[in-house]
Specification:
Number of domains: 1
Number of strands: 8
Keywords: Hydrolase, Protease, Thiol protease
Shape: globular
Protein name: Peptidase
Largest sheet: 6 strands, antiparallel
CATH class: Alpha Beta
GO molecular function: cysteine-type peptidase activity
Family: Belongs to the peptidase C40 family.
Order of helices and strands: HEEHHEEEEEHE
């Protein structure tokens, strides 16, 4: 099984986990970063760096792309072209939720091509698999892949 297929299988196990800001515990609570952290731990072991406490509007006042910078440090860049759709299951998708805002939402591509979908933790919904519909696709700012065998 490829690392991408492994990431999708792990992400789908988390479906139904309630949304809980800053949490990263399968079945108990998670936000979008927590979901990614949980997948990382299962694939690679210990997380690559400590995650400081963060607020829901983190990095917005300073306009810092902290999540994007962290993704570049620990994942392989697949594309940093806005609106670029995932090509492989298991890609980490980074979204900008509103124009002019910082990129601060993550998901894992589950299906690609026709019927594309992604798994993410979304406030008010928990961890779910959503269609990668046009409203979501237009918010994509970058895509990344997990390294085989860790970093």
């Amino acid at each position: 099984m490829s690392v991408g297929e492994q990431a999708v299988a792990i992400a789908r196990r988390w479906i139904g986990t309630p949304y809980l800001h800053q949490a990263s515990v399968e079945g108990a609570g998670s936000d979008c970063l927590g979901l990614l952290r949980g997948i990382w731990r299962e694939i690679h072991g210990q997380e690559p760096e400590p995650v400081p406490a963060y607020t829901p509007d983190w990095s917005e006042p300073a306009r810092e792309e902290r999540l994007w910078a962290a993704a570049r440090r620990h994942l392989v860049v697949a594309s940093e072209e806005a609106g670029s759709l995932p090509e492989w299951p298991g890609e980490v998708i980074l979204f900008r939720l509103r124009a002019g805002g910082v990129a601060k939402h993550l998901g894992i591509a589950a299906e690609v091509g026709a019927g594309a979908s992604f798994v993410h933790a979304y406030s008010g919904h928990g961890v779910i698999e959503s269609p990668l519909s046009r409203p979501w696709a237009r918010r994509i700012v970058a895509r990344f892949q997990f390294c085989e065998g860790g970093i």
